[in-house]
From TrEMBL:
This is Phosphoserine aminotransferase. Homodimer. Pathway: Amino-acid biosynthesis; L-serine biosynthesis; L-serine from 3-phospho-D-glycerate: step 2/3. Binds 1 pyridoxal phosphate per subunit. Belongs to the class-V pyridoxal-phosphate-dependent aminotransferase family. SerC subfamily. L-glutamate binds at R41. Residues 3-346 form the Aminotransferase class V domain.
Length: 359
């Protein structure tokens, strides 16, 4: 049975990438060693990491004063690393509370004793729309933190806030390289790789040079300046995860880059949203202008029926459409590697389920 994996992460990889991993596994680049066995201090790996950094900068079209850094510890560790590295002058940051992951970032910064001003929140609307992009007072905050795509709630910014001289820090974990932005508007991007750039164990930070080196004597493993200096190899990096990310980046380039990914993801998500909006059984709760291209939550309003649907879907190979435990219902994640046909199959299935339901 062909299966389509709608998981929010770790998520589907391009089939071409899986094929390449299989080919490379016994002997990477004719070295006689598997890619999991090669030393991070070898020329073989130097090429992998340098190429991945170069491909990513090309895809993002960011100028040369951005560093691409590779960390471990997930995007969650960056909720600690970013304030420790950047919140040095005002010791105060601004944050738009758009959902679970923004709130996690707020919590981690607060634990460090850094003041977090929540500029706006849509918690009282169950995060079915985004907070307002208000003008920020200048020279007040070390940065503004936003979550470009809210994986659980299914919202995404189409426009970015104008922050004046306040740096913009963004968690792009769930729509990185899947939705097009002017990436040079971000002063720092943090991304867990396991949705659109490969596998868990790797976190990518793309940061502007003028933001690093502000804090001194940080724990080494979260020190941006040190990681920039050591080309992300202060200690043993996640070699396999960086190699997979490199393959995914190459794949995105071959497909036509971020603009093409954005176009495809719009087409995929439109198909699903249009069906849901016409349906009498299903509801997509997010306000239209704030809908995510990559995570589409929907409900029937009847938890037992949702359960039955999720079960039936998995029996026909439509996997992992269960919504996050905090919102219930269903969620289809349509990351870059999900083909259009996967969404067509899902819509056909939902259509049939609805017809059977009404009898
Ligand atoms: N930010 C967003 C938007 C996420 O979706 C997630 C995880 O799903 C995280 C942060 C946390 O990432 P990690 O599990 O890599 O720490």
């Amino acid at each position: 049975m062909v299966v389509y994996n709608f998981s929010a992460g770790p998520a589907v990889l391009p089939t071409e990438v899986i094929k390449r991993i299989k080919e490379d596994l016994p002997s990477f680049d004719n070295s006689g060693m598997s890619v999991m066995e090669i030393s991070h201090r070898s020329n073989l790996f130097d090429e992998v990491i340098d190429q991945a950094q170069q491909d990513l900068k090309e895809l993002l079209q960011v100028p040369d004063d951005y560093h691409v850094l590779f960390f471990q510890g997930g995007c969650t560790l960056q909720f600690t690393a970013a304030p420790l590295n950047l919140a040095t002058e005002h010791k105060k940051i601004a944050l738009l509370d758009s959902g679970h992951w923004a709130d996690r970032a707020r919590d981690e910064a607060s634990r460090l004793g850094i003041e977090v001003d929540v500029i706006d929140s849509t918690k009282n609307l169950h995060y079915t729309q985004l907070p307002a992009l208000k003008d920020l007072p200048q020279d007040t905050y070390d940065y503004l933190h936003i979550t470009t795509n809210n994986t659980i709630e299914g919202t995404a910014y189409n426009r970015l806030p104008k922050t004046g001289n306040t740096p913009l820090v963004a968690d792009l974990s769930s729509n990185f390289l899947a939705q097009d932005y002017d990436f040079s508007k971000f002063d720092l991007m943090m991304v867990g790789a396991q949705k659109n750039v490969g596998i868990a164990g790797l976190t990518i930070v793309v940061v502007k040079d003028d933001l690093i080196g502000k804090a001194k004597n940080l724990p080494s493993m979260i020190d941006y300046e040190l990681f920039a200096k050591k080309n992300s190899m202060f200690n043993t990096p996640p070699v396999f995860a960086i190699y997979v990310a490199g393959l995914v980046l190459k794949w995105v380039k071959e497909q036509g880059g971020v603009k093409e990914m954005d176009r495809r993801n719009r087409k995929k998500s439109d198909l699903l949203y249009d069906f849901l909006d016409d349906s009498k059984l299903f509801t997509a709760p997010v306000m239209k202008q704030d809908r995510s291209l990559t995570n589409v939550p929907f409900v029937t309003g009847k938890p037992e029926l949702d359960q039955e649907l999720i079960q039936q879907a998995s029996e026909v190979g439509l996997l992992n459409i269960k919504g996050h435990r905090s919102v219930g219902g269903m969620r289809a994640s349509l990351y870059n590697a999900m083909p259009y046909i996967g969404v067509e199959k899902l819509v056909d299935f939902l259509n049939k389920f609805e017809k059977d339901y009404w009898g």
